[in-house]
Amino acid sequence: MKTDYNFIQKPKHLLVALFFIPIGTCLFAQNPSLAPETIDSAYWRIQKNTYRINLSFPVVTVGDIPEGTGILTGMYEWSIKRNFSLVSKLGINTYNDPYEKILTKYAYQALASVEQRYYFNFKRRIRMAKPILNNSGTYFGFEGRFLSTLYKSPNEESFNTPTDGMKLFYNIGHQVQKNKYFLNYHFGFEIPFQSVTTGIGIGWVF
Question: Taking the domains of the chain in order of start, what are their residue ranges?
């Protein structure tokens, strides 16, 4: 069943505008000046290359199309500059049969993505004595995501899942690392606006 999104076509421009207004406010707001040595010493805690394994659980669906039951990915984050990084993911997205009371039937879909991130609250976290270890902070991201053809057995026709192919998302998220543990949560919308993406993830940092 294909979800009809015609009812959101007119308000979508307003939604996009409302999403970008706080972005501009955050990017161009004046922050109190900090001593360069304070900032520099804190930024030394960000590694150039970070490798993670992440298991995330989508928490929102659009209509009757689920984003997935669980998404297991390997992550690589490359810190380009102080506030910018490039994140790549490769993994498996799983779906359970929504008509089964017990999770006995699953379908699988390969997932690959690349996301450009901008972390906008590092200075604030430093002032509040919060860690920014390995890009621990809040970010805006532009993500390109590729989904493969769904793998399922012939008798599992009740699965209703996103279409395969390339999708673009604009995200806002937060991540934090403590010791070797990693927590991330995010919210975003597809460009053009057809669906949302959101989830909570936990993981391990190498």
Answer: 48-205
Q: Are 118 and 173 in contact (CB under 8 A)?
A: no
Q: What's the CA gap between 123 and 35, in Å, rounded?
A: 11
CATH tag, 48-205 = 2.40.160
204: closest CA among 185, 175, 179?
Answer: 179
Among 73, 12, 97, 77, residue whose Cα is nearest residue 199: 73
CB 12 within 8 A of CB 170: no
For the CA atoms of 147, 53, 182, 107, the dihedral, rounded to the nearest 10 degrees, stands at: 40
Report CA dihedral (182, 183, 189, 190) to the nearest 10 degrees: 30
Summarize pLDDT for 121-171 with one digit per residue, the tens.
988 888 887 888 889 999 999 999 998 988 875 566 666 666 788 989 999
Q: What is the pTM of this model?
A: 0.74
Residue 147 is encoded by which pair of tokens?
Answer: 């989904």
Residue (of 90, 89, 183) closest to 133 by Cα position:
183
- Coil, helix or strand for 175? strand
Q: Given a cut of 90, is residue 88 above it in pLDDT?
A: yes
pLDDT at 189 over 80: yes
d(CA 160, CA 195) in angstroms, rounded, equals 14
